[in-house]
Design brief:
10 strands, 7-stranded mixed beta sheet, 40% helix
Length: 328
């Protein structure tokens, strides 16, 4: 459907730019899928987080390295838009003078173990995700995510017992099921952090906890926050494994492995995130140049409009009734 939409945009004198929400895939296999396994002729501009990703794109594809947009909020002038720690704590009923352990939960696939299974199976097939090693079976993958999520919660509960003076703040992934976390926070007394971006969360953080591969880990290093990186298995080579030399690592056997602090992660951030502090402005400049460019187009036929409508309606059928949104 994405390719169909892009084709219709281009054929009506529009332009197609790709600005990845996840511009640092965790493994080399995922990088190959994100950079190679799609129709490059439909893209007019690919905005890369880093030169590491740009070099893996076809040379025929117009691409520009801009850095990771959201990292701009950890440098002037955009960091001034993030409220002060005391203000954030007051909103959420937290004590700014006590340790605050922030948690980014990142298990969006777990919900498909019990619902919308056929949609997810077909979606992965359509996107070509089932061709990636370790992701051949969407249902088995979702069931494994449920197992990992359960162990993740056990670790958090263990830490709450070990560090009774600490306050725990949980921010679920935007595509994650919220209801189980509401219940868990109600039982444990942890604070649920839903309606704000990641910047205020890291502003109040004494230590940040997330699973291996979660972008909030290097984001915490960018913000100068120590991390606890939860590892469930050995991922193939790539960005997530590169990150295992930073922060503290914990494994399911309750093995804690101290590594380096956030300051040592600068080479990693430069490699995968192209940290510039001016990413948003660079992105805006490139989009403006693209919007001013022109080219010859062939408008869609009536039959093609009909096929496009049917494809959109088919996709809509799977999403008509949401089970849970970010507000529950």
């Amino acid at each position: 459907l994405n390719e169909l939409i892009a084709d219709f945009v281009k054929r009506q004198n529009g332009k197609v730019a790709i600005l990845p929400t996840e511009g640092r895939p965790n493994t080399d296999e995922l990088v190959a899928w994100a950079t190679q396994e799609w129709n490059h002729s439909l893209c007019d501009l690919y905005l890369c987080w880093s030169a590491e990703i740009q070099k893996r794109l076809p040379e025929t594809l117009h691409s520009v390295v801009t850095g990771c947009n959201r990292f701009d909020f950890y440098a002037a002038p955009l960091n001034e838009l993030v409220p002060e720690k005391e203000q954030i704590c007051a909103i959420h009923g937290l004590n700014p003078d006590k340790p605050i352990y922030t948690v980014a939960s990142s298990f969006p696939q777990a919900k498909f173990a019990t619902r919308s299974q056929q949609f997810n199976i077909q979606d992965w097939k359509d996107l070509g995700i089932t061709k990636i090693k370790g992701r051949e079976d969407p249902l088995a993958f979702a069931q494994k995510e449920v197992e990992y999520l359960g162990w993740f919660k056990q670790l958090l509960f263990y830490m709450m017992i070990e560090y009774p003076e600490a306050q725990f703040v949980i921010k679920p992934h935007p595509a994650e099921d919220i209801k189980p976390w509401r219940t868990w926070c109600g039982v444990t007394g942890a604070t649920l952090f839903l309606n704000e971006p990641i910047y205020p969360l890291l502003k109040i953080s004494s230590k940040h906890i997330a699973r291996q591969g979660c972008v909030t880990l290097p984001e915490a290093w960018r913000a100068g926050v120590d991390t606890l990186q939860v590892c469930f298995d050995n991922l193939p080579s790539g960005a997530a494994n590169d990150a295992m030399q930073y922060g503290v690592i914990v494994r399911p056997a309750w093995e804690f492995e101290p590594c380096t602090g956030p300051e040592a992660a600068k080479p990693y951030l430069n490699k995968w995130f192209g940290v510039t502090g001016n990413s948003i402005q660079q992105t805006a400049d490139e989009l403006w140049k693209l919007a001013e460019s022109t080219g010859d187009v062939t408008s869609p036929t009536t039959e093609e409009w009909g096929a496009f409508h049917q494809a959109v309606m088919k996709h809509d059928k799977y999403h008509r009734t949401p089970h849970e949104d970010i507000n529950g």
